[in-house]
Amino acid sequence: MKIGVYPGSFDPFTIGHLDVLRNAAGLFDTVYIAVLNNNAKSPVFSMEERLSMIDRMIDAEGLSNVRSGAFSGLLVDYAKQIGAQYIIRGLRAITDFDYEFQIDAVNRHLDPEIHTVYFMASPAHSFLSSSNVREIGGMGGSIEGLVPQCNYQYIRERLARQK
Ligand code: PNS
Questions:
Q1: Are 75 and 8 in contact, with CB atoms under 8 Å apart?
Q2: Is the distance from CB of 18 to CB of 148 less than 8 angstroms?
Q3: pLDDT for position 163
Q4: Which residue CA neighbors atom 5 of ligand 1 most closely?
Q5: What is the mean pLDDT of the chain?
Q6: What is the CATH number of domain 3-126?
Q7: b/e string for 100-138 if b means 16 or more Cβ within 10 A?
Q8: Are 146 and 133 in contact (CB under 8 A)?
Q9: What is the pLDDT of residues 77-111, one digit of tens each?
Q10: What count of other Cβ atoms lies within 10 Å of the Cβ of residue 57?
Q11: Averaged pLDDT for residues 139-152
């Protein structure tokens, strides 16, 4: 059984994350989306909101081998707890590489048996990030097509209220 864990802040989960997730769901028997519970990062969307949007998206996309959960502490400990042998990450551009290289080095040091698999983002999503979505939505710009359609209305209204 090949199990992968797809970690992130997902504040909020974007269409770029969905692209990576679809690829991972096709490769692994089970994929756990692991939402980082770290208040130091001061997320805009609460853990409850992020998980319920992710669950709605899993249902809407029919991703029957994908689960979601929150984690705090070390990612490799969470991976071991759920039986994941692989960490899944997306790469958009060369600028992501440095950050991912560092995370990988730390995780390898902590647990050399857990490997990270990377999916290149589609070029159409290379500019897309959760922080772009928050900024565009918060300033009244259109975020349609940047987040999963089933969550678009909720995110749009929620970010507009932030203004
Ligand atoms: O969405 P992000 O912020 O790029 O995700 C970063 C994440 C969650 C993968 C990273 O911060 C993480 O794994 N945090 C958990 C703490 C940990 O394991 N640290 C050691 C590796 S940096």
A1: no
A2: yes
A3: 61
A4: 8
A5: 96
A6: 3.40.50.620
A7: eeeeeeebeeeeeebebeebebeeebeebbbeebbeebb
A8: yes
A9: 999 999 999 999 999 988 899 999 999 999 999 99
A10: 24
A11: 97
- Rounded Cα distance, 11 and 16, in Å: 13
Provide the 10 A C-beta neighbour count for residue 147.
Answer: 26
Two tokens, residue 57: 């998206």
Q: Report the distance separating Cα 81 and Cα 96, nearest Å.
A: 27
Nearest CA to ligand 1 atom 17: 74
Could you tell me which residues come within 8 angstroms of residue 2 by beta carbon, excluding any fewer than 6 positions away? 27, 28, 29, 30, 85, 86
> Could you identify the atom of ligand 1 that is nearest to the CA of residue 34?
8
Query: Does the annotation count 41 as an active-site position?
Result: yes
* Contact (CB, 8 A) for 136 and 114: no
The structure tokens listed for 45 are 């969307």
Give the helix/strand (H/E) hosting 150.
helix 149-162
